[in-house]
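Hey everyone, long-time lurker, first post.

I ran two proteins through the pipeline my lab uses and got sequence/structure pairs for each. Pasting them in order. The first:
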Amino acid sequence: MLTKVSITRCPDYEKAALKRTLEEAVGLLGGIRSFVKPGEKILIKPNLLAAKEAGSAVTTHPAVIAAVIDMVKAAGAEPFVGDSPALGSAAKVAERCGIMRVCLEANAPIVDLKTPVVVDNPAGHRFKRLEVSKETLNADGIINVGKLKTHVQTYLTLGVKNTFGCVPGKLKAQWHLSAGIDTAAFADMLLDLHLFLAPRLNIIDGITAMEGNGPSAGAPRQIGLLFASPDAVAMDTAITLALGARPKDVPILEAARRRGIEQVKDDGFDVCGVPLHEARVKGFKFPPLVSVNFGASLPYFIDKRLRRALTSRPRVDHKKCTLCGVCVDVCPPSIMDKSTKLSIDYDRCIRCYCCGEICPRGAITPVDGWLKKIIPGL
């Protein structure tokens, strides 16, 4: 039997209507009791990237989290909400985006996924050991509730990528540094991590999505869709197709294809609810760059000037930059400086775009080298 992916329409975040729609979405997959048992402790894992208002589409909307909490409690389980934001605590981000309020109303704790534990991962394709949070491992099960957004390094950030928040704090930067300029290696790590954690249920908030320069500086885009599946690879593939992209454009899905995972194929899952052709989104704006590290992965003997001309890189808009230093602090290889104005050592830059991801002013965006701009297909 093929894995099911449910697609349902929900025009806005009105509480009662959203709850009915989400119950319908999960009902198409067998109902919440297919995923949660009485007495279990269930981690609800939202996207709490940064402390932004709910309307910015940077984080999972609080109304979606409220509906998931209600469903878990109705099944007799004990929900808690947890994440490890790129900057600040889970409580701080949850307060700003409105998730703290719904957690307090439902008496569901907010937990920082902050305590690192090294675990063996013998089934891993590339990474046989992983670092995850103890708080995640203490849960009986995970419900993964992400946000539909673009991402300049991984093209889209959906269900599989959302589980990266189960890696504590600055360990994320270490994983970026470990993968270096190899996007495929980073995608393999994300997929290995997700398959190890094995969320029981994956939900994507696509009511208001983010397009363009995601995951934090893009533009909100009203799509009016909720996606759910027990399999995030299948769900992410369905979303990618609905947005008009190809799975091979998404490094995580390309990693799944290389491994022979069937759910990444167009016919590798069964859509229920809104048919896929009716869920198509016209004119969705993807990140400005694909294959963001092309030039950086060229052989060492290529002339430095030619390498720079072929390499995509983060560009600083100094008019927007306030020299707050947040990007300097999170930069995995520590190659940024703000002594006079923000500068980047591009020869050592690994093109992870953590700087642009976390910049509170949207002052850092990816840009192509001049030769890469004029050569098609690079």
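...and the second, right after it:
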Amino acid sequence: MTPWKILCDFDGTISVEDVIDSLLDRFGRPGWETLEQDWRAGRIGSRECMTGQVELLDMSRDQLDHHLDGLWIDHAFPAFVAKTRELGMPIRVVSDGLDYAIHKILGRYGLDDLPLAANHLSPAPPPRQWQLTSPFQAEGCRSGTCKCACVAQARASGAKTLLIGDGASDFCAADRVDFVFAKHRLIEHCRAAGIPYVPITGFEDALELLPRLLDGSLVAEHVRHEPAVANAH
């Protein structure tokens, strides 16, 4: 049986809310909304957007940590991770978000040892200033973390790949994996692009679906029904 490797988004997928959005709402100086509008309009990529937005954050480390202590993850995610480990399915968090925040939040659940690809948040020289670097960017990709490159790494061993995600940062990677568990905007993208997927509301659903993913019935069911959907248009 070909093993599966799992690539899982963080903000809005593992976490209940988007971390950077919550930080900007609370600590962002004027101007971050304009960057957000430029990104949504496609004028800039997410890496340029987030780099600029992080530079507009005005907070101390204590304020940052206190804020992160109030952010939560999907209640079923720890059980999902435990099951994937039991089944020998490696899981990697791939995020266009902030590594410091992800480690801090997952650490409360004993999950900060999960492999992670994300943007690096670090203090800037002036007090209360921050800066963003993107160690997982790729040439020709405007995202801070190139999730497509992460998929290519996962596939290099011959493993099948499952993406779990919810939004625009997952669109490109969804085109390159073998199957998708999709939330929110990613559902519409997969449906429109004909990408093999199932919709989930959270990790309770994902946990229930794992056995059918492993025995092949989940993917087979999608393939069996896809031609009928395609011929209907």
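Reply from user beta_strand_b:
Welcome! Quick read of the second one: The beta strands are 4-8, 91-98, 116-123, 130-133, 160-165, 179-182, 197-199. The domain at 4-231 is CATH 3.40.50.1000 (Rossmann fold).
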